[in-house]
Specification:
Order of helices and strands: EEHEHHEHEHEHE
Keywords: Hydrolase, Metal-binding, Nuclease
Distance between the termini: 13 Å
Family: Belongs to the metallo-dependent hydrolases superfamily. TatD-type hydrolase family.
InterPro entries: Metal_Hydrolase, TatD-like, TatD-type_Hydrolase
Helix content: 40-55%
Number of domains: 2
Protein name: Deoxyribonuclease TATDN1
GO molecular function: 3'-5'-DNA exonuclease activity; metal ion binding
Length: about 160
């Protein structure tokens, strides 16, 4: 998008540097992304089949990245559930490896950056097993009642455009 191309059509000149500069000038202190900024560590729900191939070494690798870059890793994620794209990973697989990643949040005392697409009920049910976690439920597309449930569990809500 910042390269000026949207849906295959050039809409404007590349402007990532200008967007970042405006952010810093407006008082932004941190942005979660890679390189000179900050990052999250986790397995996106649509990629959980990668986790399944060798769950213990995959989990160990995630832990190692967090330990090696502890000053740059600011959250666990983007993990969660995405039931709109189960062609990439079945629901049960997503749920299993989502739960494993929640333990990383507890171990490293990091907030969660959660993905929740068409899966609010299951996401809330799993989170209820892990009290005292915090973070953002991103890509939220549920109802106001479901949003209130996450807020009551100490999570913020992130909406897509």
């Amino acid at each position: 998008m910042y390269s000026g191309i949207y849906n295959g059509t050039k809409k404007h000149q590349e402007d990532l540097e200008q967007v970042l500069q405006r952010s810093w000038e407006a008082g932004m202190e941190k942005i979660i992304i890679t390189e000179r900024l900050y990052s999250t560590v986790g397995c996106h729900p649509t990629r959980c089949l990668e986790f399944q191939e060798n769950s213990s070494s995959y989990l160990t690798a995630l832990q190692q990245v967090i330990q090696d870059d502890c000053k740059k890793v600011v959250a666990i994620g983007e993990c969660g559930l995405d039931y709109d794209r189960i062609q990439f990973c079945p629901k049960e697989t997503q749920k299993k490896y989502f739960e494993l990643q929640l333990n990383l949040s507890k171990t490293f005392d990091l907030p969660l950056f959660l993905h929740c697409r068409n899966a609010a009920s299951d996401l809330a049910e799993i989170l209820s097993k892990f009290p005292n976690l915090r973070g953002v439920v991103h890509s939220f597309d549920g109802t106001i009642e479901e949003a209130k449930r996450f807020i009551d569990m100490n999570f913020l809500i992130g909406l897509n455009g």
